[in-house]
Design the sequence.
């Protein structure tokens, strides 16, 4: 016979990733990206621990649904401020369920910085501040070993983990379809990726390579990556991640003659509209405002882009 007592208890849902986009009539868009923990407690939950009685247990999945429901139905100003949204979720829970004594809601914000071009803020494109890592690698190979008179010098530079996101102006339509295809056309979608970009310099003269403006090339590669992602006015550039990748690389090659080729890897970090139709709400296609980030699986798009006389490898 068990004699121990439950001294304290709480349960709920953790790491609920919810993203809310606010779209204004003038084209300006705002984003809030949260990781939410919601915990419920109350004396009447004790029997769920000691007697296997689940009658009063509000399923953690229901708590998750509530977070998305409120992210959609609350006024935008009550969602975009984490302190306000957390308190609204907690107040809803204790108001709806009489047997809930305490609701604890913790929100960790995942901040996005708005991109700027010519000191002007972009209306719908964002990046994570200070996250990318710059790196370089130098390889020198003897052409006629053991003699070191002739050498092939390869310097590869780049950056990774530059996380970017835009809330509109990205599409994926008219792709191959067969009996295994379930993905619908997406004429407009929220697009996010963590950019890996690297570029290569090849020469036989080390001194010549060492005089290159490496800092300026790095800054230009990053600038071209962001600008192509956010600003290119041609619709076909945003028809897929592949086309955007190509334009990013092409810009770098056109700006810096010393660069031999450019490689990108762009994982497509999915943000899917959360289906709120079971609760009588429209949140799909043109009505999408509340999204759920999906870490795995993700798309993964790569390419090496070079000048026409470099050939394909």
Sequence:
């Amino acid at each position: 016979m068990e004699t121990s007592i439950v001294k304290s208890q709480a349960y709920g849902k953790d790491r609920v990733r919810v993203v809310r986009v606010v779209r204004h009539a003038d084209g300006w868009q705002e984003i809030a990206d949260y990781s939410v923990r919601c915990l419920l407690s109350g004396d009447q939950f004790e029997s769920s621990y000691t007697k296997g009685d689940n009658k009063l247990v509000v399923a953690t999945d229901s708590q998750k649904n509530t977070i998305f429901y409120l992210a959609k139905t609350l006024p935008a100003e009550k969602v975009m401020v984490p302190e306000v949204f957390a308190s609204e979720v907690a107040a809803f829970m204790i108001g709806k369920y009489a047997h809930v004594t305490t609701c604890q809601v913790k929100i960790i914000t995942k901040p996005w910085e708005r991109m700027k071009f010519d000191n002007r803020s972009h209306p719908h494109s964002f990046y994570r501040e200070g996250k990318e890592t710059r790196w370089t690698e130098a390889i020198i190979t003897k052409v006629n070993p053991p003699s070191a008179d002739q050498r092939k010098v390869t310097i590869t530079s780049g950056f990774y983990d530059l996380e970017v996101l835009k809330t509109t102006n990205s599409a994926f339509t008219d792709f191959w379809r067969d009996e295994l295809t379930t993905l619908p056309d997406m004429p407009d979608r929220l697009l996010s990726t963590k950019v890996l970009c690297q570029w290569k310099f090849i020469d036989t003269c080390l001194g010549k390579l060492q005089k290159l403006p490496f800092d300026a090339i790095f800054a230009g590669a990053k600038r071209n990556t962001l600008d192509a992602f956010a600003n290119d006015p041609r619709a076909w550039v945003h028809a897929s991640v592949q086309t955007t990748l190509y334009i990013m690389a092409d810009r770098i090659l056109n700006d810096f003659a010393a660069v031999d080729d450019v490689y990108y890897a762009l994982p497509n970090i999915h943000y899917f509209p959360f289906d709120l139709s079971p609760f009588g709400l429209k949140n799909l296609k043109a009505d999408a405002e509340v999204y759920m980030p999906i870490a795995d699986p993700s798309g993964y798009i790569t390419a090496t882009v070079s000048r026409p006389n470099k050939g394909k490898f």
User: Anything to note?
Assistant: The mean pLDDT is 93.
